[in-house]
Amino acid sequence: MQVSGRVDPSRVLYSVKETAKLMAVSERAIYNLLEQGALNSVKVGARRLVRRADLESFVNRLTEA
């Protein structure tokens, strides 16, 4: 669900496009992170989704480095 054209930060799962918007990077950058195993995701049907907890964990690892 989007609020005023923005991604709702309270959601549990985000599409690759929504994850890219939240991180202010390209969708290709998100796919690269997924392929490298740096960012975890789940598959629901044909969709690749990023859990909010996995996104937060990824960002926390960035700030620790």
Q: What percentage of residues falls in helices of 4 or more residues?
A: 40-55%
What is the class in the CATH system? Mainly Alpha
Q: Tell me the number of helical segments per DSSP (H or I, 4 or more residues long).
A: 3
**Biggest sheet statistics:** 3 strands, antiparallel
Helix/strand-derived category reads alpha+beta
Biggest sheet, strands in spatial order? 3-5-4
Low-confidence stretches: none
Tell how many strands the DSSP assignment holds: 5
N/C terminus separation? 32 Å
Mean of all residue-level pLDDT scores: 89
Using the alpha-carbon principal axes, give the shape.
Answer: globular
What is the CATH topology classification name? Answer: Arc Repressor Mutant, subunit A
Query: How much of the polypeptide forms β-strand, as a percent range?
Result: 15-25%
- What's the domain count? 1
Order of helices and strands: EEEHHEEH
Just name the CATH architecture: Orthogonal Bundle
Report the C-alpha radius of gyration, rounded: 11 Å
Description:
There is one protein chain. This protein is of the alpha+beta class and 65 residues long. Helix content is 48%, strand content 23%. The strands form two sheets. The chain has a three-stranded antiparallel beta sheet with strand order 3-5-4. It has a two-stranded antiparallel ribbon with strand order 1-2. Helix 1 packs across helix 2 (27-36). The radius of gyration is 11 Å and the shape is globular. The protein starts with a strand and ends with a helix.
